[in-house]
Design a protein that fits this description.
The chain is α+β, with helices and mostly antiparallel strands. It is about 45% helix and about 15% strand.
């Protein structure tokens, strides 16, 4: 089972040799078994790779993220039709009733807000808003948009003088990088389970190829929030995202979360959530959807 990520922050030449990814750099060559890799982040535009590398990565179910000149992820390459039941799972997506999709979205939003509450508790923020009570107010489909109300209270408590719309703020750059990594992990898990990522439960943008990934990643966002908040203790809003910052955020899929009574990495939690969504759609039972409802203990996720 794939369990590691590769984050390339310096120029490299990639090729495939005997089922190994060969990373050639000035300091020497490194080989990594393809079967061990879950995600690859190309974070230096001087890196070169061939169609053969992309094909081999797709064959192994590896998500490939490429960063732009500002070192922000701008492209995501995923395997195509690698699941033996792709058509059957796609039919489940297309035939899901509106009430079922609304109830699934309700569960997702509730899990997200509950994890936001745990994030503020974990970080020992003063006078946290009553997010736990807001969880109870989320109805089917979240018609009152409790998600947005909780978000406003959450961000104002998590960071001082902060707006998600300020692209120049180090915190936003870090959050966006971290979310892109988690989104890639979710999208990888969805394609591995046979889903079409563009067909969402709640998100439905015609220009978004990853609506379903954007749905399911919501409860995972606080994993990135905790890491960003921890890193920000030694940063200022005007700082640039450093290589060390990006390396810390690139390892987010290895952080630990809980699903039910089991602890697992974010990477494997994404896989479990995707598999459970298949079961939930098959059984038309929202209780079959498994989401990360509890974050790891201190020292495991920070």
């Amino acid at each position: 089972m794939a369990w590691k990520g590769v984050h390339l922050t310096r120029p490299a030449r990639l090729c495939i040799r005997e089922s190994q990814l060969l990373v050639g750099q000035d300091e020497g060559d490194v080989t990594i078994a393809l079967e061990d890799i879950a995600w690859l982040i190309v974070d230096d535009q001087r890196t070169s790779l061939t169609a053969g590398v992309l094909s081999a990565c797709a064959g192994q179910g590896i998500a490939v993220l490429v960063s732009d000149k500002r070192h922000m992820p701008c492209s995501l390459a995923l395997p195509h039709h690698i699941h033996h039941r792709t058509a059957a799972v796609a039919n489940l997506q297309l035939s899901a009733s509106v009430p079922l999709k609304k109830r699934l979205w309700q569960s997702i939003v509730r899990a997200k807000i509950a994890n936001q509450a745990r994030t503020l508790e974990y970080l020992a923020r003063r006078d946290p808003p009553p997010l736990d009570k807001m969880v109870e107010r989320v109805g089917s489909g979240d018609p009152e948009n409790i998600e947005a109300q909780a978000a406003r209270a959450y961000w104002s408590c998590l960071f001082d003088q902060f707006s998600r719309g300020n692209e120049a703020d180090w915190r936003n750059a870090a959050l966006n990088y971290g979310y892109a990594v988690i989104r890639g992990a979710i999208a990888r898990a969805l394609t591995a389970s046979g889903f079409i990522p563009a067909i969402g439960l709640h998100h439905a943008s015609i220009t978004n190829a990853f609506n379903l990934a954007d749905d399911l990643m919501e409860p995972f966002r606080p994993v990135a929030d905790i890491v960003v908040a921890s890193l920000f203790q030694d940063r200022s809003v005007d700082d640039q995202l450093s290589k060390e910052d990006r390396q810390a955020l690139a390892s987010l899929p290895l952080k630990e979360v809980e699903i039910g009574q089991s602890k697992m990495s974010v990477l494997h939690a994404c896989e479990e959530t995707a598999k459970s969504l298949v079961r939930a759609l098959e059984g038309a039972d929202v209780d079959l959807l498994n989401l990360p409802t509890a974050l790891g203990h201190r020292g495991e996720i920070g």
